[in-house]
Amino acid sequence: MLNRLVPAAAVIAAALAPVGVLAQQYVSQEGASSVPNYSLVQLSVDPDKVPAEAFKAQVDTIRSCDDAVKVGGALGADITRNAYVRGSQLPIDLAAILKKLPTGQPTPLFSGKDGQLRVLVICGRA
C-alpha cells in the first residue's frame, strides 16, 4: 500500500544520502548553471504514530511553506528546514521532480531506510 503513495521513494531518499554516496546519479557540474538551488522544508513522521493515509491527506492541503510548518506541527512531525540545497548535487530524478514542482507544493510521499514517512516542500529557488 505504501508503494502506491511513494512513487519516487528511492529517488527522493537518495537525495537525503550524504553528497557523493550516489555520485554517478547526480547532475553533472557541466549542467549546474541550468539547475536551480532550493530552499526546502522536510516533514518526517513515524508511520506508527501517523498512518500514511492520514499524512498524505494532510500533506495534500499544503500550498506554501507556512502551510507545511503548520501541518507538520499539527501532526507532530519533525520539521527540517534546508535554506540552501544545491540542485546540482541532487539525484537527476529528484532534480527533475523539483524543477517541475511549483513553489509551495509538496513532493510525493517517500520513506527512507529508517521507515519514516517524508515529504519535501519547495520554499524558494534561485
List keywords for this structure.
single chain, disordered N terminus, 126 residues, 31% helix, 4 strands, alpha+beta
Order the strands across the largest sheet as they lie in space. Answer: 2-1-4-3
Strand content: 15-25%
Mean pLDDT: 80
Residue ranges: pLDDT <50 for 5 or more in a row? 1-32
Structural class: alpha+beta
Number of domains: 1
Please explain how this structure is put together:
The structure is a single chain. The chain has a four-stranded antiparallel beta sheet, sandwiched between helices. The protein is 31% helix and 21% strand. It is built from five helices and four strands. Mean pLDDT is 80; it is low at 1-32. The chain has 126 residues and is α+β, with helices and mostly antiparallel strands. It has one domain.
In a few lines, what is going on in this structure?
The chain is of the alpha+beta class and 126 residues long.
Topology, please?
Blueprint: H1 2-5, H2 9-15, E1 38-45, H3 52-59, H4 65-75, E2 78-85, H5 92-100, E3 110-111, E4 117-125
Antiparallel strand pairs: 1-2, 1-4, 3-4
